[in-house]
Amino acid sequence: MPRVEPRQITVQPPITGQETLLDVQDITVSFDGFRAIQNLSLKVPRGSLRVLIGPNGAGKSTLLDTIIGKVRPVGGRVLFAGRDITRLPEHVIAGLGICRKFQAPGVLEGLSVRENLLLAARKHKGVFATIQGRPTQAEETRVQELLTLTGLKGKADVSAAELAHGEKQWLEIAMVVAADPELLLLDEPTAGMTAQETAQTAELIRSLVGKHTVMVIDHDMHFVELLQAPITLLHQGQVFREGDLDTLRRDPEVMEIYLGRPKENAHA
Ligand SMILES: Nc1ncnc2c1ncn2[C@@H]1O[C@H](COP(=O)(O)OP(=O)(O)OP(=O)(O)O)[C@@H](O)[C@H]1O
């Protein structure tokens, strides 16, 4: 397959008239001299949803790692709500309201759905949280909100171990949401899900938008389509294209480097 050189394009912010929450400015990330990300810039408006796609090795995870402070760029900077967070320690960045799903305390299988959510809500308030003691009114309200959000109301008292794969993923998302993050980063949230679970996950994520800003990485184009959100396509560590799915699908170079590749993208 001929190599298609990535080119930086200038794109209008997909959602106009909104304040930028995340402003990634010209970052370069190097692993022993290999540039996994090169001069990448990206703006995400507050309260919006953004989908990150791209071939394997395009730099999607590295970008999220850089945003959360796990990886340090050798050039450029990351602004969050106008503040330069590029050199801040990971826990400080998390404290500012950036949460990545895998950072969530995993679901505790020995506890019920309700108990997991209560624990997540309490952990948000203090590190040494337990499920001992009656929930306060505020905690009860929060748990109910999270149960409604995930559609798990009917399973509140079911042990987390008994949940289906998709339900467990929703519980995990709810546990991250319990921390009330301003920016939520989700890495392939639908991996291993059935088509119906995938559709419900898209609905769940869309319901978070507005109150939260959400960035999702996924390879499943059916899911991406359901999210109905602006897409940033990464390729070889750079922004290759930005736009809606229909526009990207009409672009022969996009088809060439990504959407036309059946192996990485069975649903394209
Ligand atoms: N810690 C590391 N050390 C060395 N190279 C790395 C490291 N992390 C990532 N890379 C390389 O950087 C490039 C980008 O990787 P990254 O995981 O960000 O891609 P990705 O778009 O998330 O891919 P995938 O869709 O397969 O998860 C790849 O070539 C990868 O091998």
From TrEMBL:
Keywords assigned: ATP-binding, Nucleotide-binding, Transport
Cleaved signal peptide residues: none
InterPro entries, alphabetized: AAA+_ATPase (IPR003593), ABC_AA/LPS_Transport (IPR051120), ABC_transporter-like_ATP-bd (IPR003439), ABC_transptr_urea_ATP-bd_UrtD (IPR017781), P-loop_NTPase (IPR027417)
Residue intervals passing through the bilayer: none
Matches recorded under Pfam families: ABC_tran
Domain (ABC transporter) ranges: 22-261
Gene Ontology molecular function, alphabetical: ATP binding
PROSITE patterns: ABC_TRANSPORTER_2
Cited PANTHER family: CONSERVED COMPONENT OF ABC TRANSPORTER FOR NATURAL AMINO ACIDS-RELATED, HIGH-AFFINITY BRANCHED-CHAIN AMINO ACID TRANSPORT ATP-BINDING PROTEIN
NCBIfam families tied to this protein: urea_trans_UrtD
Name of protein: Urea ABC transporter ATP-binding protein UrtD
Organism the protein comes from: Deinococcus antarcticus
Gene name, Swiss-Prot/TrEMBL: urtD
